[in-house]
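Structure request: Ribose-5-phosphate isomerase A, Methanonatronarchaeum thermophilum.
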Amino acid sequence: MSVKRDGSDVGKEVVGERVVELVESGMVVGFGTGSTVGVFLRELAGRDVDVVGVCTSFDTELLARRLGFDVRSLSSVGSVDLAVDGADQVDFDGNLIKGGGAAHFREKVVASFSDRFVCIVDDTKVDSELDLPVPIEVAPFALENVLGEIGCLGGEGVLRSCGEKDGPLVTDNGNFVVDTDFGRIQKPERLSKEISCITGVVEHGLFPGMADSVLVGSSDGVRELREIKGNEER
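Returned structure:
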């Protein structure tokens, strides 16, 4: 019996397959987190390329090792040639909200130390403006204080719970995640800086202007949303 796939599944598959074309043997590749990255990893595993993988979560590391990749720590490789990751939402300027998988701290670190960061999404993730809640990773000791500071910025924060056990979700780094609704985010870069200035915030899921390329998959194929750095240099 055939299984009918929705448009987002098709989009994930085509964009996950397309981004493999950017990978060359000898590269150090940052492996992001999420279902679209999973498609990318499975496709890459079937290609004749020899790469080193730097993973952004325990979940990704388990998958990468099962697929036979040479997985190493960021500190052991120094820098990354190409980082590939998904997003929860992308605006028309290529700004991202990430952190649905609570891996945004490591994702941002790997992206920051990469020569090129390519974001891959299906077309349901693209909107004119960012408006999803922003995941904020918080040191447990500072939780109540951070919630107060978030409120001063106009955000409404909710501590993320863990679906598989009682209590709050704990990240791979031992911290909590506060999903914070700021409404429509018209100035992502400014909000990013304001959140980062709060003592007790480990990292947050706003990625303003960080992606060098955003590839968008749909039933019509793959298009590039914006070649961000190239446009800025022209």
